[in-house]
């Protein structure tokens, strides 16, 4: 009987039961796909990260990510959770570790301060698809139960990605954001048409000087009705804002804080850093706090 060491971590917060919960399996060596899918389904978080010994000489660990229904190539909050749990378990000092994922080898910075940790994830290469056509836009608005008048006029509806793509939808009002009641079956159907499973609705309607955006993320096609705080949405949002010239920045560097989870009472904050080269996003990083909820052993 194998003992599987599991943490549950709330990412992008220092307050328990806020932010985004992720399962972390620290000793995943020997687990097969069926085992991992079953564990992710049992934990029932939006994602569970599985840490393996390195399969190459260039990385420190291999990490795979499963929702309750499928494997996904990358996950921001589960990466924060995985490296936070690893730092706690191994009593790590400040360091940079490299993880091998399906989107490549990514450097992860661990900062230790006052016996706690902050984690910075360098995400995959930023890409931005063309703006949606009118027919697809209308299908999306209908699925989200939004009107065209709700949209932020300067924000094109596009798919942005740093490894796990999201549709970016800018709207005017935080009240509208929090009252959204999407048609999940319509979003699921649309996902097959556009080749993207996640929908990130965001607004600049913020009453906090240090918070630029509020957002909500829906991905019913992969079993996530709503994700509380999404690294793979807020990170690409940074690249989207830069490439579409929607924000001002200096010295080829843009940084902001995005907040998510308000409507779900799981508020969390993602710090996003974008390095810019000739007006295009060159590197996207997300940084966050985390807090451990429990540590347990699964007998498999």
TrEMBL record:
UniProt keyword list: Isomerase
GO molecular function: isomerase activity
Cross-referenced InterPro entries: Phenazine_PhzF-like
Pfam families: PhzC-PhzF
Domain of life: Bacteria
SUPFAM superfamilies in the record: Diaminopimelate epimerase-like
Family that this chain belongs to: Belongs to the PhzF family.
Name assigned to this protein: PhzF family isomerase
Protein species of origin: Chryseobacterium herbae
């Amino acid at each position: 009987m194998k003992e599987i060491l599991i943490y549950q971590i709330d990412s992008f917060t220092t307050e328990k039961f806020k932010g985004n919960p992720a399962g972390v399996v620290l000793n995943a060596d020997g687990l097969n796909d069926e085992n991992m899918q079953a564990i992710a389904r049992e934990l029932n978080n939006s994602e569970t990260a599985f840490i393996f010994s390195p399969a190459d000489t260039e990385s420190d660990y291999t990490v795979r990510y499963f929702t309750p229904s499928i494997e996904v190539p990358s996950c921001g909050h589960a990466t924060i959770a995985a490296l936070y749990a690893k730092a706690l378990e191994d009593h790590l000092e400040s360091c940079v570790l490299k993880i091998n994922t399906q989107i490549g080898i990514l450097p992860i910075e661990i900062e230790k301060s006052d016996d706690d940790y902050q984690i910075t994830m360098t995400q995959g290469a930023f890409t931005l698809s063309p703006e949606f056509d009118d027919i697809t836009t209308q299908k999306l608005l209908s699925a989200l139960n939004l009107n065209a008048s709700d949209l932020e006029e300067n924000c094109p509806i596009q798919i942005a990605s740093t490894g796990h793509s999201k549709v970016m939808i800018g709207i005017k009002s935080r009240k509208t954001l929090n009252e959204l009641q999407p048609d999940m079956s319509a979003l699921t159907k649309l996902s097959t048409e556009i080749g993207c499973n996640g929908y990130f609705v965001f607004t600049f309607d913020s009453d906090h000087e240090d918070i630029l955006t509020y957002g909500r993320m829906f991905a019913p096609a992969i079993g996530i009705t709503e994700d509380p705080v999404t690294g793979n949405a807020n990170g690409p949002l940074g690249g989207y804002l830069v490439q579409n010239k929607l924000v001002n920045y200096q010295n080829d560097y843009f940084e902001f804080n995005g907040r998510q989870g308000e409507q779900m009472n799981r508020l969390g904050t993602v710090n996003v850093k974008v390095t810019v080269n000739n007006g295009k996003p060159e590197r996207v990083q997300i940084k966050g706090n985390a807090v451990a909820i429990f540590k347990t052993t699964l007998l498999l």
